[in-house]
Amino acid sequence: MTNSINEVEDADLFFVTGTNTTAQHPLIGSRMINAVERGAKLILVDPREIQLAKFAHLHLRQNIGTDVAVLNGIMNIIIEEDLYDRDFVENRTEGFQELKAVVSRYSPNVVEQISGIRSKDLIEAARMFAAADKAMILYAMGITQHVTGTDNVKSCANLAMLTGNIGRPSTGVNPLRGQNNVQGACDMGALPVVYTGYQKVVDAAIKDKFEDAWGIEGLDDKPGLTITSMMSEAQKGSLKALYIMGENPMMSDPDSTHIELALSNLDLLIVQDIFLSETASLADIVLPAASFAEKSGTYTNTERRVQLSHKAVDPPGQARADWEIVQDICRLCGYPMNYKSPADILDEINRVTPSYAGITLERIEKEFGLQWPCPNQEHPGTAYLHKDQFTKGLGTFLPCEFKPLAEVPDQEYDFILTTGRVYFQYHTGTMTRRISLLEREAPEAVVEINPEDAKRLGIKTNDRVELSSRRGTIRLKAEVTDRVPKKVVFSTFHYIESPVNLLTNPAHDPVAGIPEYKGCAVRIRRCA
Amino acid sequence: MKILDKKHLITVIKNWAERYRVISPVRTSHNETIFDIFDENTFTLDYTKPSMPPKSLYLPQSETIFTVENGEYTPVTSRIKSLLFGIRACDMTAILQSKSFMNGEVADLFYNSHSDNTITVVMACAGPQNDTCFCTTTKSGPYAKKGYDLQFYDVGESFLVAIGSETGTELSNIEGFSDIDDADALNKIQSFQKEAEQSIERIPEFTPAMDRLSNGGIRDEFWERFGNKCIVCGGCTFVCPTCTCFNVADRPTAPGKGDRLRTWDACLYGGFTKEASGHNPRSSQGIRLKRRHEHKLLYYTDRDTHGGLCTCVGCGRCSDYCPVHIGTIEVVKAIAGE
Q1: Which H or E run contains A314?
Q2: Could you read off the pLDDT tens digit of each residue along chain B, which spans 338 residues?
């Protein structure tokens, strides 16, 4: 998030797209509800009628995968009607003419044809957004999990810059991160192109710095593979070994059949996890890891806040903290890694990561964490980014053209399947499916289908249905509901009994490598 | 009645701690006050309303109630003797109410094994502990009328101590306590009680709201408005001193062996009332909220209230913690405004 969670309470307008916030970030969702009850406006752009729809002043139900067109359309109206923030655009940005040239092709009528959103509603949304003093854009996987994920994010950023909604409290471009430490994992360089704090592996000076810090030579200066490319390379046989920690790609990656082939084609698969997940079951070596309560360390949450976590109980059996396992493996491989505690590791992070330099153990022990960037011991941390200038100076508009879903429905596969999560289960269910109360609440996969479609296909709520894509078939229970629009079905990927990612499309964003979980072509039948 | 000089308090509690597990207010390293095992170094009298009621002493968040081995069930009951020092009157009333509730048609063996082994020392409130306290409305505070073993009144340099049971007599029969039974002490307590009662604001909408509810004057649409914003965290039930619903689950530990556990549950979860067919008689979040509030404000017997107005004891914690403001105070005011 460019901004902070508590700032949500004070926004004048929310532009919420691709996040089922009350279900997946309920404490952020509840702040939105409180703000709306206080008088803030809510524009919801989401194909599904999620809980927040009940509070939305405008709910735009776009055709799946048309986000760039919708955002361009809104920007076009704002520019056409001269509602944009001239001051901000002139002083803080560059590339406005390029943006204008692209978005001018997205008139309300054109956008209506692409997205299905009535031009009247689009115009109202644009005016409402432009009129707000403090507008917050919030999004999650509905924006990113597309082949155009990067374009979708750029377009959100364009809208924020065009209206001067960045660099102030209760504004900004706010991706809601899905896990307690996914922000921290990225910050620590668990990405193929960067070291900690997004320092690029291709930068020779950065390479030198890390070689010095670690007392080694010859760090690779070429970007590595994304997860999606690792799986393709494994299937081809050019990737020989994988060491997977705390991830369950057999359930969470698209086109599971391909994932299983890829993993079984490896010479060596090591999985480090707290439970024997579907992926760990395929491993040559399983390394049992300690859970959050069994180890100490820090987590970095969605608002860039680094928080301390203390060990409460001992790990069971042979399980150990991840850092201890990794350290031992490094030692066995001949590198003398010698951390004594997570504090030692944080100390190194402080030394090699400019944005974390001031986030020391001493300080986070005393306070409720610290938000990066925090470049020195005296720095109070940063509640919102890009205050007086962008990291690179001027913010560059990066206009994008609309591109359709990688797989659009046809006669054979005539529905779009979009996937997500339910409130009571978490991700691939490795943890939550072991909790009896959560299982009682959400015991099995359900596919949501619109009443009109259901009637035509003779499907009733609780019927068993068969859902197929070009990649596979699963069976699950139907729920007939207006929550989904016509010709769209929605389901979740929590359940091994009905593994939805057997169906999803591995086509992915060319930059980020994120797969298009939010839209693939399927057909649905009532089970005989 | 007894009197205890404050400077003897630690010695007295240490004496009790030789016989009981004493749970008392303590200050954490993050400068919060919570109720935890007594520790001389962190013990504090500078505390307000603890964020959690003492419910988990009686009904742990999760506990094994049976072990099973080769088809043989063995009940697991607690024998730990605890002393709760410094609880508030609202929570004392809640303990009495829950005890009755858990001993309705069938006595709850496990609850009673905790409850029979727990001694209560109430710290009467001199005023509201924060702005959501409304025990004077629900007639469940600011001092306990019964149920306690001892009740402390803070009168400055010392505590005046009322004795509520034989155990209380024993507890106060140790060094540090002195007898005091003069009219002056009684007057002091009475004026403490009067001042405390006057300092806690009443909620005038409360009784009218109960009447509206019992007359059936509230339509389901009213509850759906709250249901629309409820995020189903269940937090209101977990912080509620009189919510005692639980779920039962089995956990295999080895072949032929296992534990039967019970864990806190919440009527606000859909699965709480879902039937095997998938049908749910409480089909929406609004209806579930309705049921919860009716249970607090309508469905109770005199046997269950122990002098309180209803089975809400006015602690205000649901209003303190609900992220979307669906606490009893907000609901009652909304009902009255309908």
Answers
A1: none
A2: 999 999 999 999 999 999 999 999 999 887 889 999 999 999 999 999 999 999 999 999 999 999 999 889 999 998 999 999 999 999 999 999 999 999 988 999 999 999 999 999 999 999 999 999 999 999 999 999 999 999 999 999 999 999 999 999 999 999 999 999 889 899 999 999 999 999 999 999 999 999 999 998 899 999 999 999 999 999 999 999 999 999 999 999 999 999 999 999 999 999 999 998 888 999 999 999 999 999 999 987 777 899 999 999 999 999 999 999 999 999 999 999 88
Of B265, B269, B323, which has the smallest distance from its Cβ to A27's Cβ?
Answer: B323
Q: Does B271 touch chain A (CB under 8 A)?
A: yes
**For residues B131 and B46, what is the distance between their CA atoms, to the nearest angstrom?**
17
Q: What 3-state DSSP class applies to A120?
A: helix
Nearest to B233 among A26, A31, A440 (CB): A26
The two tokens of residue A60 are: 């735009």
Query: B231 contacts in A (CB within 8 Å)?
Result: 22, 26-27, 29-30
* Residue A59 Cα, gap to closest chain B Cα (Å): 16
For residue B263, the chain A residues in CB contact (below 8 A) are 436-437
pLDDT tens digit sequence for A317-328:
999 999 999 999
Q: B85 and B136 in contact (C-beta within 8 Å)?
A: no
Shortest distance between the Cα of A368 and any Cα of chain B, in A, equals 10
* Partner residue facing A437 (CB), from B228, B231, B247: B247
Q: What's the Cα-to-Cα distance from A147 to each of A44, A406, A492, A506, A518, rounded to whole Å?
A: 22, 7, 19, 9, 10
- The CATH code of domain A182-371 reads 3.40.50.740
**Residues belonging to chain A with any Cβ–Cβ distance to chain B shorter than 8 Å:** 22, 26-27, 29-31, 33-34, 37, 51, 54-55, 423, 436-437, 440-441, 462
- Fold classification of A415-526 is Barwin-like endoglucanases (2.40.40)
**Cα within 13 Å of Cα(B116), Cβ side:** 12
Enter the CATH code of domain A5-176: 3.40.228.10
How confident is the model over A436-459, as pLDDT tens digits?
999 999 999 999 999 999 999 999
Test B265 with A51 for CB contact under 8 angstroms: no
3-class DSSP assignment, residue B121: strand
Which pLDDT does position A324 carry in this prediction? 97
Give dist(CA A31, CA A37) in Å, integer: 10
Domain boundaries, chain A: 5-176, 182-371, 415-526
So what's the pLDDT on residue B22? 98
CA distance B18 to chain A (A): 27
How many CB atoms are closer than 10 A to CB A213? 12
Inter-axis angle of helices B285-297 and B220-229, nearest 10 = 110
B325 contact A CB<8A: yes
pTM for the model? 0.94
Is the CB of A437 less than 8 angstroms away from the CB of B325?
A: no
